Amino acid sequence: MKENACCLRLNSINSKNTTSTITPGGIELARQRTVFVCQSCGYKAPKWLGRCPDCGVWNSLVEELTEIGHQDKGRRHHPSDRPRRIDTVTMDKEIRHKTGLSEFDRTLGGGVVPGSLVLIGGDPGIGKSTLILQVVDRLAQQGLRTLYISGEESVQQIKLRAQRLSADSAELYLLTGTCLEDVMDGLDELAPRIIVVDSIQTIFTESLSSAPGSIGQVREVTSRLMNMAKSSNRALFLIGHVTKDGAIAGPKVLEHLVDTVLYFEGDGSQMYRILRSVKNRFGPTNEIGVFEMMDNGLAEVGNPSRIFLEDRANDVSGSVVISCMEGTRPLLVEIQALVCPSSLAIPRRTTIGVDPNRVNLLAAVLTRRGGLNLSDKDIFINVAGGIKIDEPAIDLGVISTVASSFLNKPIARNTVTFGEVGLSGEVRGVSHTETRLKEAVKLGFTRGVVSKKSIKPLKGKVYIELIGVSSIQDLLEVLFR
After folding, report:
1. Claim to verify: residue 209 and residue 331 sit in the same structural domain
2. Where are any strands of DSSP class E within 131-209?
3. Which of 41, 301, 410, 446 could be bridged to 55 by S-S, CB 3.0 to 4.6 A?
4. In the chain, how many domains are there?
């Protein structure tokens, strides 16, 4: 063996899964161990397992190399701030950068906060890169230097999309690369105020030996980018891949690190897209922005309720309009139901836009408390427009439209309804009743069927006929008498 060899890799005596790097002088530099890490939750196992014992996901364990010993080498320890009394802390005036897209600003709570981390997830091809390129171009037009970092496309490919979107601001810079150290060098040289990373799963750091997109890489890269953004007061947008279940790929800690998590929802066959805020440290959660996919990019939809109701049929059974809340915004959507005899031993319950378990529960309540035998009927529920609703206020609408289809009696077109239904058949009130009804008045509805307890505080506040119901028996009598 030659004496001038730089180093030798020898099998460790203690473990067959551990290797050591030793210099010719016999000095041990580091030891590496092979572990299998769950890409869903981060669970570590010494050998491969078909199913993660922690989160229960199948085929999620991936082999990775981790260094043991010398873990603190090269790490810089920053002294923590001294404890301060809360009454001595002074607040700076919050400054937000308006993007010019009011629907996008709404989901962020009013605009982009300097030093914030925003994570955007969505299905492939839904329009994440298109949306963020439109946003940063508008910010660049305000004089804010912006850097778009792509690990998936070349600058020529980004330029092609930018031409279609008419994004040509002089303060918008492009950078392609996947190595975090190279990206940091570009950030130090340009010093941008707004940064976009598309996507976070493609960026890796040389300090870890695992593959790009692994749980360790994503966590380390995000942490270093977060420290950079917080210390320099720069706004950072991260675009993330999603799994087949619709969740953002990578460790769950990724969503805990960032300040805001946005999901871009929609069906590729439809032209409408919904940007939903599921976490926001600087504004309300569950806020939504509605966009329409056009040839030249995404356009804002100022009045989504009117869009969702524009194709509603006249005098058809199994259709009703409900008023739901998405964050602070009231939305009027149409719920459709089809009830027909079943040829199966177990009737089908198919839903689009609502929780199927909730529909099964409400069907049982309607059978037991309302006297409508649905045990041998197939029930199909659809929320028109592709929107998803998960609040209890949808209960009264589901009960109404199922009963309408079962009895083959249409509900008056000028009627809007909302409320929660309990297992004993009682109708309970929901929050923001006045806001929901005012939105209905704007769109021409003249009758509202709500919980009886919700009517008393509303006298003289809304110009609409209010009918209070306390049970589903009262509801059926009001709608179909």
Report:
1. no
2. 146-150, 172-176, 194-198
3. 41
4. 3
Q: How far apart are CA 422 and CA 362, in angstroms?
A: 9
Structure tokens at 472: 């589903």
Give yes or no for a contact between 222 and 255, defined as CB atoms under 8 angstroms apart.
Answer: no
Burial letters 326-360, b for 16+ CB under 10 A, else e: bbebbbbbbbbbbbeeeeeeebebebebbeeebbe
The Cα–Cα gap between 428 and 454 comes to: 8
The answer to the question of residue 3 being in a domain is no
Q: Using one digit for the tens of pLDDT, what is the confidence trace for 412-462?
A: 999 999 999 999 999 999 999 989 999 999 999 999 999 998 887 776 677
pTM tops 0.85, yes or no: no
Residue 340's contacts (CB-CB under 8 Å, 6 or more residues apart) are 377, 378
**Are 282 and 337 in the same domain?**
no
Rounded to whole angstroms, how far apart are CA atoms 38 and 289? Answer: 34
Region of residue 444 (left: phi > 0; alpha: psi -120 to 50; beta: else):
left
The strand ranges marked E within 139-219 are: 146-150, 172-176, 194-198
Q: How far apart are CA 377 and CA 347, in angstroms?
A: 6
Residues 233 and 332 in one domain: no
CA-to-CA dists, residue 37 to 17, 47, 252, angstroms: 14, 9, 14
Helix and strand numbers (H, E) in the chain are 11, 23
CB 217 within 8 A of CB 204: yes
State phi, psi for 98 to the nearest 5 degrees. Answer: -75, 135
Site of tokens 């993660």: 52
Domain that holds residue 193: 95-302
Query: CA 400, 404, 410 angle in degrees (round to 5)?
Result: 110
Q: What is d(CA 176, CA 77) in angstroms, rounded to the nearest whole number?
A: 31
